Amino acid sequence: MTGFRTLDDLGDVRGKRALVRVDLNVPMQDGAVSDDTRFVATLPTVTELADKGAIVLLLAHFGRPKGAKRPDMSLSLITQAYAGMLGRSVQFVPESEGEGVAAAIRVLRPGDVAILENTRFYPGEEENDPALAASMAANGDFYINDAFSAAHRAHASTEALAHLLPAYAGRAMEKELNALAAALGSPERPVAAVVGGAKVSTKLDVLKHLVGKVDHLIIGGGMANTFLAARGVAIGKSLAERDLTGTADEILDAAEKANCTVHLPYDVVVAKEFAANPPSLRTCNVHEVAGDEMILDIGPAAVEALADVLKTCRTLVWNGPLGAFETPPFDAATVALARTAAALTQEGSLISIAGGGDTVAALNQAGVADDFTFVSTAGGAFLEWMEGKALPGVAALMR
Fold first, then answer.
1. What mean pLDDT do residues 348-374 have?
2. Residue 32: beta bridge partners?
3. Those residues with Cβ within 8 angstroms of residue 339's Cβ, 6 or more apart along the chain or in another chain
4. Could you say which of 5, 16, 38, 213 is catalytic?
5. Which residues contact 11 (CB under 8 A, 6 or more apart)?
6. Active site annotation includes 380
7. Is 220 a catalytic site residue?
8. pLDDT tens for residues 125-152?
9. Do β-strands 28-29 and 167-169 pair in parallel, antiparallel, or remain unpaired?
């Protein structure tokens, strides 16, 4: 994907101040970082800039302080853990704009790294306030956005700042944008999309956008039940949004007009109660679900048919699990299809892009997250991109 500048377009940065927007919003447990995935994503950009002698100033948010200075959401809490991961000392600056930052920078040497305080301690951050952005920009010579996961929000540190300094995409952002362009921008066809999850309502815009973009739309999770109900299938006491069957019909009609094949399960795994390995567990044809049963996963015959579909495709976009994957054995379909996609990717016949929190968890459970072409850790931003929306933080980098 072109249209944005990357670190390759930077000249000599020695002694220059790089304001780098990163995602350090990591989960914490008992005062320690419990998942450092987001830290890892920042390392290539930060290391490259520091090695080239830039003074690297990291801008990030942490939690939702809503414009108030809250000690329990200070980035000072993660500075030491981040330094350990980066393998070099990292200074903490208790401001993210103004004279406090300027004073701290005076003692920093080329190659030094500092984390500035939580950008959301300032009410102007979430308001995309030009004055706050200008005060941040005063302490930088150039700006780098390396936080795709925050790119769907027009905030001062993700959007306004990009217009005030020479702006570039960091390595993680560059990788993400190139992967997304390969998935839906100008993909190799045929393209399949797997869209799962509990509710149609949360992914309506995604489904409407995708039917015009992909050749095969595979619908799983609780959403599939709503589509089955729309088709007149009796789904017992399965989770479904029965008020949205009309909308599901509209999506099916739009898919037909666009020559997009929609795949719904024809065999399913059902039980009378939602629990791990319940005694009432059975697999049946989708038309044989009893009134007191609920559909909790896609059946093995349907999974095999979907695997055959993927074998005919060149590109796959995946968001959301096929069943109630957190509870065994209702992870079976998701795990089986993910392993097929991973094997096809490894043999070079499929480009596979996956994203969203549940999806990443499901791929990790299947042991194949590293075998996909690209796995995005962004939740909201990935979903909005799948809806075809322009992301403010990305748009601001475009030239």
1. 92
2. 29
3. 366, 367, 368
4. 38
5. none
6. yes
7. no
8. 999 999 999 999 999 999 999 999 999 9
9. unpaired
Q: What is the mean pLDDT of residues 317-333?
A: 95
Sign of CA dihedral 222, 334, 204, 375: positive
Cα distance between residue 228 and residue 240, in whole Å? 9
- Work out whether strand 261-263 and strand 267-271 pair parallel, antiparallel, or are unpaired: unpaired
User: Are 11 and 141 within 8 A, CB to CB?
Assistant: no
Whether the Cβ atoms of residue 387 and residue 209 lie closer than 8 Å to each other: yes
Q: How far, in Å, CA of 82 to CA of 202, rounded?
A: 34
Residue 196 near residue 251, CB atoms below 8 Å = no
Examine the residue annotation and report whether 196 is marked as an active-site residue of this protein: no
Strands 32-33 and 28-29, by their bridges, are: antiparallel
Q: What is the DSSP string of 214-249?
A: -SEEEE-HHHHHHHHHHTT---TT----GGGHHHHH
Classify residue 246 as exposed, middle or buried by CB count within 10 Å of its CB (0-12, 13-18, 19+).
Answer: exposed
From the candidates 63, 67, 380, 388, give the one annotated as an active-site residue.
380
Q: Is 282 a catalytic residue?
A: no
Give the predicted TM-score (pTM) of the model.
0.88
Instruction: Name the catalytic one among 70, 199, 272, 339.
Output: 199
Q: Which of 69, 357, 367, 389 is catalytic?
A: 357
Who contacts 71 (Cβ-Cβ below 8 Å, separation ≥6)? none
Domains of the chain: 7-170 (3.40.50.1260), 187-386 (3.40.50.1260)
The tokens describing 187, both together, are 């993909």
**pLDDT at residue 388 above 90?**
no
| CB-based contacts of 330, cutoff 8 Å, min separation 6 | 269, 296, 297, 323, 324
Its sign, for the CA torsion 90, 91, 97, 98, is negative
- On the question of a cis peptide bond just before residue 329, with omega within 30 degrees of 0, the verdict is yes
Are 276 and 253 in contact by the 8 Å Cβ rule? The answer is: no
59-73, 79-93, 103-117, 182-196: lowest mean pLDDT where? 182-196
Q: Cα separation of 245 and 111, whole Å? A: 58
